[in-house]
Write a structure and sequence with these properties.
The complex is a heterodimer of chains A (197) and B (148). Chain A has a single domain, classed as 3-Layer(aba) Sandwich (Glutaredoxin). Chain A is 55% helix and 14% strand. Chain A has nine helices and five strands; from the N terminus they run αββαβααααααββα. By secondary structure, chain B is mostly helical. Chain B has one domain (8-144). Helices cover 74% and strands 0% of the residues of chain B. Chain B has helices at residues 9-33, 37-46, 52-75, 79-103, 120-144. The longest helix of chain B is centred in the N-terminal third of the chain and has 25 residues, at 9-33. Classes of the chains: A alpha+beta (197), B mainly alpha (148). The A-B interface holds A 159, 161-162, 174-182, 184, 186-191, 194-195 and B 35-39, 41-46, 48, 52, 55, 105-108, 114-115, 117.
Chain lengths: 197, 148
């Protein structure tokens, strides 16, 4: 009996739900039939293109009407010098309820901070002075590091090798979407229409 | 003449390879047909060789063609046509995959549905299938030639 209790004590925490890594980086109804996870790196040009061209259409056609739940997954690539720093900065902004403006401005100014690394300056216009003071401490905190590590671990477990990778989940089936074809919204729309018809 | 007999080792090998190739085509088709057709369209479009209208036609038709080809290969009917079609199809896939690898395009190969990333392993796999298919095709056409 004691052995059983000891085994339970060890296993119960492992069986518990994983820590919630979503804070500001999710949009729509969590109960929507389709889950769209975008594994993205703020310094990746393809991710900027996907963010600028496809994401607004996905939000308009599927997230806003409650057909899909969209989650941005932090997946900074090692090949990008400022990818991790950008992810940490946006995740810190997300803790202050500023995920969307921070993500938008970093993608909009990607061309400049990718060269000089001046991320703080890039994101400054969307933060108040008080918020800006909180950012350095937030970046070091588990509330920022854990979501990034969690998203990266999830991506690696799912076989994500590059960005952007869009993982569409419907009725427990996962469909990874990658490549140049992602930038033709016609295909994404056809996939989602097929699933939610 | 005995070399062309299906009871020879080469003949048995051709028979096994034909059935295996057929089964692989059926599996590849089934993996695509169980997913929304546009997932295959994304994979095809990522190769950057066809216009969007052609991508849609190929994405909708090719899985059914692969299914038919697989069944015909397994059944052993129209052997010359089916073996030649399989070789031609695999050769086209192989050339496109090599082109994508050389260009450094990171994509799904589109071979067995979503999530099958293009790599040297997929290239080796497709190359092996192409070699097998060429062997089956050669055997099929050699059997057609009149014995000396």
């Amino acid at each position: 009996m004691k052995l059983w209790m000891a085994a339970l004590a060890i296993w119960l925490p492992l069986l518990a739900a994983p820590p919630d890594t979503i804070h500001g980086n999710a949009f729509g109804d969590p109960k929507a039939p389709v889950l769209i996870e975008v594994f993205s790196d703020f310094q990746c040009p393809g991710c900027k293109r996907f963010h600028d061209e496809d994401l607004p259409l996905i939000v308009r056609d599927y997230v806003a009407p409650g057909k899909a739940y969209l989650v941005y997954r932090y997946f900074p690539l090692q090949m990008h010098l400022y990818g991790r720093k950008a992810a940490e900065l946006v995740c810190a902004c997300a803790q202050l309820g500023k995920y969307e403006p921070a993500a938008d401005i970093l993608f909009a100014t990607q061309g400049s901070w990718s060269l000089d690394g001046k991320l703080d300056e890039a994101v400054a216009p969307v933060l108040t002075p008080a918020e800006r003071k909180k950012i350095p401490a937030l970046i070091k905190s588990p509330s920022v590091q854990q979501p990034i590590e969690g998203d990266m671990a999830e991506g690696i477990a799912l076989g994500v090798k590059g960005t952007p990778t869009v993982m569409v989940t419907y009725k427990s089936r996962r469909f990874p979407l990658v490549g140049e074809g992602l930038f033709n919204y016609r295909w994404i729309k056809a996939v989602l229409d097929d699933l939610v018809k | 003449m005995t070399l062309l007999n299906s009871k020879t080792p080469a003949g048995v090998a051709a028979l096994i390879l034909r059935v295996v190739l057929g089964a692989i085509f059926v599996v590849a088709a089934w993996m695509k047909l169980r997913e929304p057709w546009a997932i295959f369209a994304i994979a095809i479009d990522s190769y950057q060789v066809l216009p969007a209208w052609a991508v849609e036609i190929v994405a909708r038709v090719l899985p059914w063609f692969e299914l038919l080809l697989g069944v015909v290969l397994i059944a052993g009917v129209w052997r010359h046509v089916s073996a030649a079609a399989a070789s031609l199809l695999l050769a086209v896939f192989f050339v496109l995959m090599v082109r994508a690898m050389v260009k450094g395009i990171q994509i799904d190969c589109g071979c067995f549905g979503a999530g099958d990333r293009l790599s040297w392993i997929t290239l080796l796999r497709d190359g092996t299938l192409l070699g097998s298919s060429l062997f089956v095709t050669a055997r099929a056409f050699l059997r057609m030639t009149p014995a000396a």
